[in-house]
From TrEMBL:
<feature type="transmembrane region" description="Helical">
    <location>
        <begin position="220"/>
        <end position="239"/>
    </location>
</feature>
<keyword id="KW-1133">Transmembrane helix</keyword>
<keyword id="KW-0328">Glycosyltransferase</keyword>
<feature type="transmembrane region" description="Helical">
    <location>
        <begin position="114"/>
        <end position="134"/>
    </location>
</feature>
<comment type="pathway">
    <text>Glycolipid biosynthesis; glycosylphosphatidylinositol-anchor biosynthesis.</text>
</comment>
<keyword id="KW-0808">Transferase</keyword>
<dbReference type="GO" id="GO:0000506">
    <property type="term" value="C:glycosylphosphatidylinositol-N-acetylglucosaminyltransferase (GPI-GnT) complex"/>
</dbReference>
<feature type="transmembrane region" description="Helical">
    <location>
        <begin position="54"/>
        <end position="75"/>
    </location>
</feature>
<dbReference type="GO" id="GO:0016757">
    <property type="term" value="F:glycosyltransferase activity"/>
</dbReference>
<keyword id="KW-0337">GPI-anchor biosynthesis</keyword>
<dbReference type="Pfam" id="PF06432">
    <property type="entry name" value="GPI2"/>
</dbReference>
<protein>
    <submittedName>
        <fullName>Phosphatidylinositol N-acetylglucosaminyltransferase subunit C</fullName>
    </submittedName>
</protein>
<feature type="transmembrane region" description="Helical">
    <location>
        <begin position="81"/>
        <end position="102"/>
    </location>
</feature>
<feature type="transmembrane region" description="Helical">
    <location>
        <begin position="194"/>
        <end position="211"/>
    </location>
</feature>
<feature type="transmembrane region" description="Helical">
    <location>
        <begin position="245"/>
        <end position="263"/>
    </location>
</feature>
<dbReference type="GO" id="GO:0006506">
    <property type="term" value="P:GPI anchor biosynthetic process"/>
</dbReference>
<comment type="similarity">
    <text>Belongs to the PIGC family.</text>
</comment>
Amino acid sequence: MMSRGQQPPWRKVLFLRQPYPDNYVPPSFLHLLRTNVGVHVPPFTSLVLLSLRVTLQFAIITCFTGVFSALFTGLVAQHHVLAICLILALLMLPPFVSLNFAEGPAQIRAAAKSFVLFVTTLLALSPILSTLTIDVSSDSIWSLSAVCLACNLLLNDYRVYRSVSLKFPASIATNMAVFASVLLASRLKTTESVFSLMTLSAEMFVLLPLLHRNYGTSPIVTIMFALSLLIASVVLWWFVSSSMVTGIVCVSASVTFLCPLWLQRLYRLKNTVHGPWDQAVIMKTEISRFR
């Protein structure tokens, strides 16, 4: 039997008989220990720009609920909301025309037909929607609407670039928002108020996210969208509830600035351990050599 000094050096070979136990750990085992390999702390500005997408969706929800509160309490008339819808439609018309014009005039005609069909259907359904939940208590309507809008905020598509491999649909969030809009519109007193609120809902929860999805890769566009809607929601809620204005400002500031700062601090606490015990990663260049 060989002594410890006469033993051959241990080799990391599987099918080789060596004078070492199976659970032998060489002294150089921890020499190749590496920590936080490939961990990159993202810059604060990039995190703020990404979090602005969440702030934008939050501003859309608060702006819509602000319009509903003003309609419900009688602070604004339905023709004022219709005027806002018309202004929004005129502002969004040129970008949508440029998008559809690239696909051909037939796409523009199809979009025009869909618009006319939507307006006609909504006019026909407005009397039904105004009495849809007449036998349901208001507390149940407020609670269910809040849950649906919260689901819209959680399930919304916040990707900067659309991935083909990711199949999670944004339509779930849109359906939640439309369902909440129907519930809230059913509490309004007049058919004109229901029509104006549902038109605003279609513009804010369907058309506006679609417009931002096509043009929102630019940070300037996202900043402009988020700032405009936040200012609008603060102005709307200023006449309804001052405490709600404080909540909107605090939540928006926390999501936009405090959460990215917190994430950066969490990155500094990250501690990943790497070494020779890690699973081997086969590179594409190595695969090509065996073809």
